[in-house]
Task: inverse folding
C-alpha cells in the first residue's frame, strides 16, 4: 500500500499510528474480547487494519451514535469521499471494495439518498402497516414458508437432527424476499440459489451477474406491468427511477434479508443458551426477545465505512478529512457508558440500542424484519416440543465476517409436537407462473435443501 502523503512524523494520522489487525481467529471466536482490548488501549476509537486497509474503528456508544446522526454534513457514505480511494491507494482487489463502490441508496448522501429513501419508505409501508392487506397476506405466507421448511427439514420423521441455520433461518427470508419482489415461482427459486451463492459461494461472481440481470429484467417487467409488489410500489413512489437504478437498489435485498436470517438464528441461539432470556419469554413474548437479542448480539455487528468530510475530533483522535470509520454496533452496545446504565434494569431491555442503525441511513424495514423473526421463532416453538442444541454452545461455528455476527450452522436435536396441522403451502408470489402455462417447478432450491437433510 502506498503511504498517505499527508502523514507527518509524530502526527496521529492513520498512517503514522501502529494499526491493530481487527479480523483474526480471535475475532471470529470472541469479538467482544477484541473490542474490550481495543477499548482499554485506545478508548472509544481505535486505528485498525481491515484486511490490509487502514481505518478507524468506533467502539463508543456516543461516538457511534454521533457519526450515524451526522451522515450528510460531517460524514459521508460515498466512496468518492475516501481520500485513500481517490488517491488510488486502495488495492483494486481489496475484498470489500466492490461492496463500498455499490451505486445504491446505502452508499449515497444528500438529495439523491433522500429521494431514494422516500421511495423505499413508501414501498415498504404496505408490508409494515399491520392494517394493510399486503402485511396480512405476507404474514400468512411467512407461516406457510416456515411450515414448508419444517416439512423438508423433518422429512416425515417426528424426531431427529437438523441445522436450523441452513435449513430454516437463512432460507426463510429469501423466500419472503422473492414474494416481496413479485417474481414468478420458478425464477424466484433460481434467484434464491444465486442469492445464496452470492453470499457464500461457490461462483459468487457468476451469481452476482445473474442476479443483477434478473433484477434488471424484473424492473423492466414491473414498469410495463405493475403488480402488488415492492418494485412496483417503488416505481409508483418514484416514477423517474430508471430500470438500472431500481435493479441496483433492489440488489441490497439479499444482504439485508440475510441479516434477518442471522437475527433469527441469533434469537434461537440465545433462547437455547441464555436461561435468563428464556425465563423472561412468557412475560415478554417473542417480539421483546427479538429486541433484546438485537441488543445482546446484533446480527449486523459492524457497518460499512463512513468518511469524514472535514477534520473531526472523535474519541482521543482527530479523524482527518477523507479518513474512513467503521462503526461497531456490537462494541457500542458493550460500551460501559451504555451497558452499565442498562444493567440496573433487571429486564435489560431498551429501544435505545443501535442494532437498526440511526439517522438518515437507519433501517427502513425494522418492523418487517422484527415481524419475520418473531414469526419464525414462534413457529418453531409451536411446531416442536423439544429443540436442543446438538453441541456445546462454546463450539458453535461462527461465520468469519467483517460485518455480520452469525452462526454458520445451528445443529439441533428435535422432537415435533404431535397433532399440529401446518399452514397450507403458500404460493411464492402474488404474480404466479400460471401465465407461462406450466406447473411451478420446485426443483433447484428444494433439491438443495433436501440434500442438506440427506447428507446429515
Ligand atoms: C426485511 C429485511 C430488511 C430490509 C428490507 C432492510 C433494508 C434496509 C435498507 C434498504 C437499508 C439502507 C437504508 C439507507 O441507506 O437509508 C437498511 C439499513 C440498515 N439495516 Fe436494514 N433491512 C432489513 C433487515 C435488517 C436487519 C435484520 C438488521 C439487523 C438486525 C438491519 C439493520 C440495518 C442497519 C444497522 C442499517 C443501517 C446501515 C448503515 O447505516 O450503514 N436490517 N436496511
Result:
Amino acid at each position: 500500500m502506498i503511504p498517505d502523503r499527508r502523514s507527518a512524523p509524530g502526527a496521529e494520522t492513520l498512517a503514522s499510528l501502529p494499526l491493530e489487525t481487527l479480523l483474526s481467529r480471535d475475532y471470529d471466536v470472541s469479538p467482544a474480547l477484541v473490542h474490550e482490548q481495543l477499548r482499554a488501549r485506545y478508548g472509544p476509537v481505535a486505528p485498525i487494519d481491515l484486511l490490509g486497509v487502514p481505518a478507524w474503528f468506533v467502539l463508543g456508544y456516543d461516538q457511534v451514535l454521533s457519526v450515524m446522526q451526522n451522515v450528510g454534513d460531517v460524514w459521508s457514505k460515498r466512496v468518492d469521499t475516501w481520500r485513500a480511494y481517490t488517491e488510488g491507494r486502495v488495492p483494486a482487489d481489496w475484498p470489500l471494495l466492490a461492496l463500498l463502490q455499490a451505486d445504491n441508496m446505502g452508499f449515497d448522501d444528500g438529495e439523491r439518498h433522500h429521494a431514494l429513501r422516500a421511495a423505499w419508505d413508501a414501498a415498504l409501508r404496505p408490508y409494515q402497516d399491520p392494517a394493510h392487506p399486503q402485511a396480512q397476506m405476507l404474514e400468512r405466507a411467512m407461516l406457510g414458508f416456515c411450515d414448508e421448511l419444517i416439512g423438508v427439514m423433518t422429512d416425515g420423521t417426528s424426531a431427529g437432527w437438523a441445522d436450523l441455520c441452513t435449513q430454516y433461518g437463512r432460507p426463510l427470508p429469501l423466500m419472503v424476499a422473492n414474494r416481496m419482489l413479485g417474481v414468478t415461482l420458478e425464477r424466484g427459486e433460481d434467484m434464491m440459489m444465486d442469492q445464496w451463492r452470492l453470499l457464500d459461494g461457490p461462483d459468487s461472481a457468476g451469481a452476482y451477474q445473474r442476479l443483477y440481470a434478473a433484477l434488471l429484467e424484473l424492473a423492466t417487467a414491473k414498469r410495463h406491468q405493475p403488480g402488488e409488489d415492492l418494485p412496483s410500489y417503488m416505481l409508483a413512489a418514484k416514477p423517474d427511477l430508471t430500470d438500472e437504478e431500481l435493479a441496483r437498489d433492489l440488489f441490497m435485498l439479499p444482504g439485508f434479508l440475510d441479516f434477518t436470517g442471522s437475527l433469527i438464528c441469533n434469537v434461537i441461539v440465545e433462547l437455547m443458551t441464555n436461561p435468563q432470556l428464556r425465563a423472561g419469554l412468557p412475560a415478554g413474548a417473542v417480539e421483546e426477545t427479538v429486541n433484546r437479542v438485537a441488543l445482546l448480539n446484533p446480527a449486523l455487528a459492524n457497518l460499512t465505512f463512513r468518511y469524514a468530510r472535514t477534520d473531526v475530533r472523535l474519541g482521543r483522535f482527530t479523524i482527518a478529512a477523507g479518513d474512513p470509520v467503521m462503526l461497531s454496533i456490537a462494541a457500542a452496545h458493550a460500551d460501559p457508558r451504555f451497558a452499565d446504565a442498562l444493567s440496573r434494569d433487571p429486564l435489560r431491555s431498551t429501544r435505545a440500542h443501535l442494532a437498526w442503525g440511526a439517522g438518515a441511513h437507519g433501517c427502513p424495514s425494522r418492523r418487517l424484519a422484527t415481524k419475520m423473526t418473531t414469526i419464525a421463532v414462534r413457529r418453531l416453538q409451536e411446531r416442536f416440543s423439544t429443540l436442543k442444541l446438538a453441541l456445546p454452545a462454546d463450539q458453535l461455528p461462527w461465520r468469519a465476517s467483517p460485518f455480520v455476527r452469525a452462526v454458520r450452522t445451528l445443529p439441533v436435536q428435535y422432537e415435533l409436537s404431535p397433532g399440529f396441522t401446518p399452514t397450507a403451502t403458500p404460493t411464492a408470489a402474488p404474480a404466479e407462473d400460471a401465465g407461462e402455462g406450466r406447473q411451478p417447478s420446485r426443483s433447484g432450491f428444494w433439491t438443495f435443501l433436501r440434500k442438506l437433510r440427506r447428507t446429515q
User: Anything to note?
Assistant: Residues 133-154 form the longest helix (22 residues). The two ends are 45 Å apart (CA to CA). Residues 105-106, 117, 120, 252-253, 256-257, 259-260, 263, 294, 299-300, 303-304, 355-357, 361-365, 368-369 surround protoporphyrin IX containing FE (CB under 6 Å). Residues 1-10, 428-441 have pLDDT under 50 and may be disordered.
